[in-house]
Amino acid sequence: MSDAERLLWSHLRHNRLGVKFRRQHPIGPYIADFACLGHRIVVEVDGSQHRGSGYDASRDAYMRSLGWVVLRFWAWDIVANLEGALAEIADCHESRCPPAKRGDRPTSGRARGANYDKLLPPPTTITSPVM
To answer: N or C terminus: fewer CB in 10 A for the chain?
Structure first.
């Protein structure tokens, strides 16, 4: 992992944002830097070698076709503005998992089964505004 990935992982691991993320998780033929399986959120940390990469565009399209949201951050943005990146990830999680209404009982992923995918909003790609 790069320094930026290690820094971000130290804040994503152990459910620190209220959701479980996995590191280096396979999605089809690709490996996501970080993935929240429960809410289908992928977080990618890109170095300068990713600038203008057609490979990244095709992998993002593939993941979106499976219902994943792909958040991409430049490595230097993570180092310079970690709190902003964490806030963007948390906002994405909240938009995909609205707060429960009073009296609603949470259900496990197994109980939701195939209907769980119907609860997710349409896939989108969010990119870091600073390049």
So the answer is: C
pLDDT digits (tens, 9 = 90+) for 30-81: 999 999 998 999 999 988 665 666 788 889 999 999 999 999 999 999 999 9
Which residues sit opposite 126 in a β-bridge?
71
Q: Which range marks the domain in which residue 35 is found?
A: 3-127
| Count of domains observed in the chain | 1
Which tokens in the block code for residue 106?
């949470």
Which domain CATH number covers 67? 3.40.960.10
Closest among 105, 100, 125, 102 to 40, alpha carbons compared: 125
